[in-house]
Backbone:
């Protein structure tokens, strides 16, 4: 009987977590607890605006896409790169270690991160976005996630770790499952430092006006993927 691709993916995530946990246990400097810790949320199928499954091959290398997960008001960057994205060990602001997951898809190059800046929680809105995928600088990856607010920069090829600016921790990783038979993608949870409590507290009224829905409404069985350019009407350019 053919193996279930979802089961295979879950096994791969556990294997990555076990490797990282082993490395941390040897290093012994920080509490070895969070390697396998995943904040599970209801599984959401990524779809296009017509409700058709968003196939992984529709992503464009180096172009940012967005969807809202795990809540209808919490945006997520969906990114594909030219090369495989390896899992990486990272630490949250409160010193919890975790394994930012490897890329998924045929080339293991697709990753997703919360688009809520870990500094002062700027995020893409329908009107404007101050945080986005931009050209990397000298010594950086070819593309970085840059927040214009205070110039925090994150490396999406290394788990969205902080490479510049005041952000105190990486962007939270959003866990994806990829079905090799159908090329479909699901979001299934997060790993790393979630900012949702602070985000919903800070922007309660604004979010309600923007989304028209009650706060902390879970995304549901499907989430719509959009090119970043369509998600926000204006993308603020900023320089370091
Ligand atoms: S809000 Fe993003 S760097 Fe300050």
Residues:
């Amino acid at each position: 009987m053919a193996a279930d691709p979802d089961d295979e993916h879950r096994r791969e995530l556990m294997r990555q977590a076990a490797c990282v946990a082993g490395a941390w246990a040897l290093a012994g400097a920080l509490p070895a607890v969070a390697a396998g810790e995943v904040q599970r949320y209801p599984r959401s199928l990524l779809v296009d605006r017509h409700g058709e499954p968003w196939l992984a091959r529709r992503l464009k290398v180096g172009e940012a896409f967005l969807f809202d997960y795990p809540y209808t008001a919490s945006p997520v960057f969906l990114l594909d790169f030219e090369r495989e994205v390896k899992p990486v060990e990272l630490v949250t602001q409160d010193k919890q270690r975790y394994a930012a997951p490897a890329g998924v898809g045929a080339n293991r190059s697709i990753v997703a991160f919360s688009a809520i800046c870990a500094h002062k929680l700027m995020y893409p809105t329908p009107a404007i976005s101050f945080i986005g995928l931009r050209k990397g600088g000298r010594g950086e990856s070819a593309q970085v996630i840059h927040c214009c607010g205070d110039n925090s920069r994150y490396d999406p090829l290394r788990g969205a770790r902080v490479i510049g600016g005041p952000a105190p921790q990486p962007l939270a990783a959003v866990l994806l499952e990829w079905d090799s038979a159908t090329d479909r993608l699901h979001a299934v949870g997060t790993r790393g430092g979630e900012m949702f409590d602070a985000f919903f507290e800070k922007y309660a009224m604004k979010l309600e006006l923007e989304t028209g829905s009650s706060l902390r409404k879970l995304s549901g069985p499907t989430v719509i993927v959009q090119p970043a350019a369509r998600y926000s009407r204006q993308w603020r350019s900023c320089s370091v």
User: Anything to note?
Assistant: Residues 117, 119-120, 122, 147, 149-150, 152, 165, 167 surround FE2/S2 (inorganic) cluster (CB under 6 Å). Confidence is low (pLDDT under 50) at residues 16-36.
